Amino acid sequence: PSDTGRVLSIQSHTVQGYVGNKSAVFPLQLLGYDVDPINSVQFSNHTGYPTFKGQVLNGQQLCDLIEGLEANDLLFYTHVLTGYIGSVSFLDTILEVINKLRAVNPKLTYVCDPVMGDEGKLYVPEELVHVYREKVVPLASMLTPNQFEAEKLTGLRINSEEDGREACAILHAAGPSKVVITSITIGGILLLIGSHQKEKGLKPEQFKILIHKIPAYFTGTGDLMTALLLGWSNKYPDNLDKAAELAVSTLQALLRRTLDDYKRAGYDPTSSSLEIRLIQSQEEIRNPNVELKAEKY
Ligand code: ADP
Ligand code: PLP
Ligand code: ZN
After folding, report:
1. Which of 111, 165, 247, 290 could serve as 228's disulfide partner, Cβ 3.0–4.6 Å?
2. How far is the centre of ligand 2, averaged over its atoms, from the C-alpha of 230 (Å)?
3. 18: domain CATH number?
4. Counting atoms of ligand 2 from 1, which one is nearest the CA of 23?
């Protein structure tokens, strides 16, 4: 691993607002990465609004783009990043892409946010869960599920820190050496649990970060979080705890700014999902001020 890299980021694009590639590409570029986005959908805005319009890329169209790169010898990547994927056929094609890129660069790091749902609700077709479990997780180098997604992938119910740590261990056994459960809600606080299994068979090194829950609902935070975890964990490959501290610190500063801006404009921040103030937070992306520390277990 080095300080930088070339990232193929296959995620959603929205014309207005920040989710998917719109919330991942800019921060990775700020951290010094070349980022090549493939837009898995192009929508007017994110799906939390009353309505949206746009186009969805299918598996064949993704293949076409990869074939174009291949024909020009342009398939060398250090990282692949994937987020929300809406269909089994598209996910199957992504698996083929990972295998192809690993053949070109055996050291390819695959960072997977297994976006499936939140707060007990699935927002992808049920068949996707099985594909993630059986085929995608085994290929991933780093996995960044939320609480609900970690439950779906492991079959565990996660009600405590111990459950979260056990879920990470189960996920390591299935493939990824780095797992970050980005948020577990326990009694009104948010808990991030990180886990790094440095060698197969070894006990993973685990830590937690306690996060004060802001009483508002944001979109694009998960996508931003995973991008930052990729960016920082590549710079600190043996310190997942440090990478997570940096990523969480950026998130908290950005969410505070977002909340302040909406309040100043006279909005009720609890009434709808808020667009994050990504561009305005570039200083906090480049140089996060670490206030929340990781506690090792
Ligand atoms: P997802 O959107 O994938 O469900 P999370 O909800 O886990 O992702 O959010 C990712 C990160 O964003 C969390 O680790 C946390 O740092 C931050 N975050 C999201 N929502 C809040 C909130 N309401 N208060 C504080 N931090 C939040
Ligand atoms: N992609 C699209 C098109 C979306 O509409 C959303 C949320 O509405 C997301 C991705 C994911 O957002 P988050 O990072 O909050 O999970
Ligand atoms: Zn998510």
Report:
1. 247
2. 18
3. 3.40.1190.20
4. 14
